[in-house]
Write a structure and sequence with these properties.
Chain A contains 13 helices and 14 strands. Chain A is of the alpha+beta class and 388 residues long. The longest helix of chain A is centred in the middle third of the chain and has 26 residues, at 138-163. Helix content of chain B is 38%, strand content 10%. The chains are: A alpha+beta (388), B alpha/beta (272).
Chain lengths: 388, 272
């Protein structure tokens, strides 16, 4: 029994953006457990108003500086140090040089693939409305394919590393929202689905997210069938397990990760499983590209009055963009619902449960603090995006 | 191997700290990029604070790298505090140097409307988006959205070695031509390459994406000339303004062009 505890984390480290954690336990009871989002808003949805349609990807791409590089960064640079008692990946350069070299190799591969396809790894230059300004050269794609094949060994060693980490034993039943696969593991478009049985079309995204404002956060929060829901790797996996590549599914099962899994700390394992899936998927896609004729990369765009909505799965979960244009092709209204924004309420409710669990155990303040930080990091939150 | 000496003189590894204000944190992520030279880079400095990557923090630092623009009163206070502690304060990226895309909301001159667009009636504190130098003295700027790691490496090496840091005075167009790229005007794309400060190695034009001026004006940039070049290529005034006002470095020019357009429109109306 934990009689009293006082944890205050100001601007939690190794996450993107600014969030605070407060936990107060008194007389064995949780008095406070709060996830506070203090990021300054940038007002992207307002700044786009009056801009021509071609500005949207260029400006909105700046919502995030980290999302373009996905899971490998999160696993090694943000999550892993907690399990080896380090404050960052930097001291591991000396103590675990082979691990850091592997981390750098995997991150570099993702970065190089972004460079070759998008023009650069951060705020891509080639992606425009209508397609791409130019296509990757075949030699570049061939070398990426070769490196993806080699990366499978690195990923299986990453799996061994994470197998040696004690994933905290914690579970809280919640709802998981993602795109619904239709024969394939979903990434772009399609129906929206939840583990509570909700199914909707993309254009009904507002009914799927039900955004609301709350005093403890400059990001809007979301809910669906219950007080909160989760998006991201674990949500995708929980909803689309059957569509994973067999090797990825096998890896998932070896960690005891099967749908529906309600342990938020397993999100890191789900990220790893997805790394294996997308590596194999990318190898197939590149082979298909290389074997076929290529179309003109940029199709002409004719603007007209109307509203467009799209949902995609990005590393941290389902992302919605909606734009309304006038006759001249200028943006009248825009709306972006960011994955981490949808996760904040779920983080808060997990934190409540984690604090209650801690209150009934005798853990030290520092252990509770670490556990709370690990919980937030397991979501791999992108807080500045969520506020945007 | 860590670099310990330069020309037989032992190197001093300065304590450096990274901070971010209103931003996407992409510039800080760029610091962790370039995996091939990352270890060399890290051996050159002693990173004592870097919230996005490490848990440890320290207030004892010599060089502060600051990303983001300033949009809230608590940020003003934090920035002034950093200024007090740092010997050298580096503004990192377009948001820190010019306000970046964040300053696009300033153009409405209507903070209440801006807030309502996003939050409705929910009260949120946010001021005009400002670059760092509106609040404190800046010792050095690293341009770009995002910053380019190769350039950061060069600048930091010079800082550590006590050499002066000189930005190119010429425009992106020169780098673009040296790289033998097809001129984007020939492909029907607008481009601010002829007036934007070089140093990015024509990053965007190299991918056939016309320059948006994220690095701000080059020395003696002839912005009036580029405006007439864009007009000659039949780009609308709106397109020219979109380019000029995107990152804040050319904001004054964009404002002027807007005023002129309004004037000529009223003139035309009167004449009609």
């Amino acid at each position: 029994m934990k009689i009293s505890c006082n944890v205050n984390v100001h601007h939690i480290s190794r996450v993107e953006g600014h969030g605070n954690i407060h936990i107060k336990i008194k007389g064995g009871r949780v008095m406070e457990a709060q996830w506070e989002v203090v990021e300054t808003p940038r007002f992207f949805e307002a700044m786009l108003v009056g801009k021509k349609w071609d500005n949207a990807p260029w400006i909105c791409g700046r919502i995030c500086g980290i999302c373009s590089i996905g899971h490998t960064l999160a696993l090694y640079f943000l999550a892993a140090p907690d399990f080896v008692n380090a404050g960052s990946v930097f001291p591991l350069i000396k103590s675990h040089p082979d691990v850091v070299a592997r981390a750098a190799r995997l991150k570099l591969l993702a970065n190089d693939a972004c460079d070759i396809i998008g023009g650069r790894r951060l705020h891509p230059t080639r992606t425009v409305v209508g397609g791409f300004t130019m296509l990757p050269d075949k030699g570049g794609l061939e070398s990426i394919k070769k490196r993806l094949e080699d990366a499978m060994a690195d990923l299986s060693q990453t799996a061994e590393l994470f197998r040696s980490f004690p994933i905290p034993d914690f579970s809280r039943e919640t709802e998981f929202v993602s795109l619904k696969g239709d024969g394939d593991y979903p990434f772009i478009g399609g129906d929206l689905v939840s583990t509570d049985g909700v199914r909707m079309k993309e254009h009904d995204y507002k009914k799927m997210t039900n955004e609301y404002t709350i005093d403890q956060s400059t990001a809007k929060w979301a809910r669906l069938s219950r007080e909160s829901f989760a998006v991201g790797a674990l949500a995708r996996l929980n909803n689309n397990f059957a569509f994973l590549h067999p090797a990825a599914r096998e890896l998932s099962e070896s960690f005891g990760l099967r749908p529906v899994n309600h342990n938020p700390f397993m999100n890191n394992v789900a990220q790893l499983v997805e790394c294996v899936h997308v590596t194999l998927d990318s190898i197939n896609m590149i082979s298909e590209f290389l074997d076929n004729e290529w179309d003109e990369p940029r199709q002409p765009v004719k603007h007209k009055k109307g509203i467009g909505v799209a949902a995609v799965e990005v590393p941290r979960g389902i992302l919605y963009h909606s734009y309304e244009f006038d006759r001249a092709g200028k943006i009248v209204k825009s709306d972006c619902v960011i994955p981490t924004g949808q996760n904040h309420a779920n983080i808060q409710h997990d934190l409540n449960a984690l604090a209650a669990q801690s209150a009934s155990s005798g853990k030290k303040d520092s252990e509770i603090e670490l556990l709370a930080e690990m919980l937030v990091r397991s979501y791999d939150p992108c807080i500045s995006c969520s506020v945007h | 191997m860590p670099v310990e000496k330069y020309l037989c003189v032992p190197l001093h590894r300065p304590k450096v700290a990274f901070f971010e204000f209103t931003a996407c944190e992409g510039c800080q992520l760029q610091i962790l990029n370039n995996e091939a030279t990352l270890l060399d880079f890290l051996s050159l400095v002693d990173v004592v604070t870097f919230r996005e990557a490490m848990q440890e923090r320290s207030d004892d630092y010599e060089i502060a790298f600051v990303e983001g623009s300033i949009t809230r009163t608590d940020e003003v206070k934090r920035l002034k505090d950093i200024r007090k502690k740092a010997k050298v304060l580096v503004a990192m990226g377009s948001c820190a140097c010019f306000g970046g895309v964040n300053q696009l909301k300033n153009r409405f001159n209507n903070p209440k409307w801006v807030k309502e667009q996003v939050y409705g009636k929910f009260p949120v504190e946010s001021e005009v988006a400002r670059p760092l130098e509106d609040i404190v003295t800046i010792d050095l700027k690293i341009y770009g959205c995002p910053i380019k790691k190769e350039e950061v490496e060069k600048i930091v090496t010079n800082l550590v070695l006590g050499k002066s840091v000189n930005h190119p005075k010429y425009p992106v167009c020169m780098e673009c031509m040296a790289n033998e790229n097809i001129c984007l005007y020939k492909l029907g794309e607008p481009c601010l390459g002829p007036v934007t400060r070089a140093g990015c190695d024509a990053w965007c034009p190299g991918s056939r994406c016309g320059c948006w001026g994220c690095r701000g004006p080059a020395d003696a940039a002839n912005v009036e000339q580029i405006i007439s070049i864009m007009e000659e290529h039949n780009f609308s005034v709106d397109t020219i303004i979109d380019r000029l006002e995107c990152f804040g470095g050319f904001r004054g020019f964009a404002e002027e062009l807007k005023k002129k357009t309004v004037k000529s429109k009223t003139k035309k109306k009167r004449a009609g």
